[in-house]
Structure formats: structure tokens, C-alpha cells
Amino acid sequence: MSRCQNLLKQLYCSIHKSLPKGARNHWLFTFDKGTPLCTRRNFSSGSITLEAAVILPLTAAFLTALLFFFRVLQIQTEVAGALSYASRKTAALSSISDSETALRAAAEVFFRKEIRSDDEIKSYVFGGNTGISLLSSDFGGDKIVLEASYKILLPIRFFPVQGVSVEQRSVSRKWTGEQPIGLGEASYVYITPDGEAYHSSKSCHYLDLSVQMVKSADLAALRNKNEHKYYACERCAAGKTLPPNVYITDYGTAYHGDLQCSGLKRTIIRIPLSETGDRRACTKCTAGKEKR
């Protein structure tokens, strides 16, 4: 019996003897009927040992699993950042080289440079930094798809399990620069999020608004370049008192009382011709050129 248990036994014996005779039969001071706690050998040592043997390992396993979960999140965050950086840098290089071998080599260099000094990856990824593979990455088509696969070591090893398998991906569209484009099968066009047409040129009149400020008193006599009248913008002018000056565009049909009106802004997106969907060709810059 340990020293601690001996002291505890002596304490209970002292308390038991100091109590009135009637209180000595309380359940706290007896195990069996009429048997004082202090007279029993090996005072509760078996139950304490059993509880410690069961609870302590379970508690340790729970805390280890919780810490491992946060470690996995930390490593995934580091790998995701490196993949994003490498895919964007490789996408930029595609403007000067279309060789898949060269792009793959460049992606490897960019990615390894980002994770080179990461201690968590060195310590917890199976094989360290070199244990992260980019072999499943794809450099064909018009996108750079970097896919990393690796294993995170378990805090408690179970043979033959070496770790938890993880896969992450980062996708970037290849950057080709401002080069003249035709309307062939693999060419690009320009659209706006809410527009119904696609355009072969970013300088198309419908994309380049050419905003002008005119006097409100002259609106009745003004016409756009298609000889159409100007009407009040539903967002910023309809039903409102007009300021002395308003804003119009060369090909638009609305006048605006606020220069910050969304009708005077264009968000232009460059996409492959094959992804235009139901959009029609712009009558100004695209229609008639597709057959050339």
C-alpha cells in the first residue's frame, strides 16, 4: 500500500473513532454491514487502480486525437497556400511557353520553394517536403491544375498504416496576354456578367462606354450613335429631380444622374468561345466574323 493510501486510511480511522457511536454506521465509513472502513485491508486500492487504468489512457487518446486534428488543418492550410502560389506563377509563365514539361518543372520549383522552410510539413508529413507529390497535376488545356497528394503521420503508429492520405487541388486559368485573337475553335471572347452577347474585342463600344457629361436641358435634342433617344435610368434618374448635368454614353439609351451608377460600369470577363452558352454574337464587333 502506498504512503498516500496509508495516510488516507489513518485519517478515516481517526474520523471514525471521533464520531458518536450512532454515526459510525453511516455508509461513508462502512463497506460491509457493521464493518468500519478503517478496519478493511487494502483500502479501495483495487478500484482506484482500475479507474486510473481505464480513464487515463482514454483521456490521453482523446487529447492526442484533438491535437492531431488541428495539426492536419495547419498542414492543409500551408499546402493550399503553396499550391495557389505555384499555380498562379505557372499560369503566368504559360504566356511564353506552352510546353507541358516546362510548365510542370516550373510548378515543382515554385511549390518546393514555398514549403522548403515549413517545419510542420517536415515533421508530420510522411517523407517530409519531398513526400508531397504533384504527379497527378494537369497542364493541358487552358488551365493549370496542381494536385498535391501526401500522407500525414499518425501520432500513434499502427502497422502497416503509415498515415492519413490527403489530396488538395488548386486551379488557375492560363494567362496568354493581350494578343490578337480570332474566332476559331480555341479563341477567347469577352462578356459581362449580365450581358446577353459576347464580344470579340474588349474595346467594343458596348464594353467601352465612353461616358460623357451633358446638360440636362439638352437631353431632348440629343441622340446616341444609333440615332436613339435617351431615357431616364431606372436606377438613378427615373422619378427624381435631375441635376444640372447628367451622364450619357455613345451607344447607351439611358441618361444617369449619378456617375457612380452601376449602369455606367462594366465588369468584363474573358472566356473561351466554347463557354459562351446561349449568348449571341455582338452585332458591332463579332457578328459576321465567325464565318471568316
Q: How many runs of DSSP E, i.e. beta strands?
A: 10
Radius of gyration: 38 Å
Describe the sheet with the most strands.
2 strands, antiparallel
* Parts with pLDDT < 50 across at least 5 consecutive residues: 27-43, 178-186
Distance between the termini: 99 Å
Arithmetic mean pLDDT: 76
Q: How much helix, percentage-wise, in residues? A: 25-40%
Strand order of the largest sheet: 1-2
Strand content: 15-25%
* Number of helical segments with 4 or more residues: 4
Structural class: alpha/beta
Q: Give helix and strand order, one letter per element, not per position.
A: HHHHEEEEEEEEEE
Cα shape = elongated
Question: What does the model show?
Answer:
This protein has 4 helices and 10 strands, in the order ααααββββββββββ. The model is unreliable at 27-43 and 178-186 (pLDDT under 50). α2 (45-93) packs across α3. The chain has a two-stranded antiparallel ribbon. β1 (143-158) and β2 (161-173) form a beta hairpin. The termini are far apart. The chain has 3 domains: 3-43, no CATH class; 63-173; 188-281, no CATH class. The protein has 292 residues and is of the alpha/beta class. It has helices spanning 3-18, 45-93, 100-115, 119-124; strands at 143-158, 161-173, 188-191, 197-198, 212-215, 231-232, 245-248, 254-255, 269-272, 280-281.
What's the gist of this structure?
The chain has four helices and ten strands, in the order H-H-H-H-E-E-E-E-E-E-E-E-E-E. It has 292 residues and is an alpha/beta fold.
Question: Could you name the key traits of this structure?
Answer:
alpha/beta; 3 domains; 4 helices; single chain; 292 residues
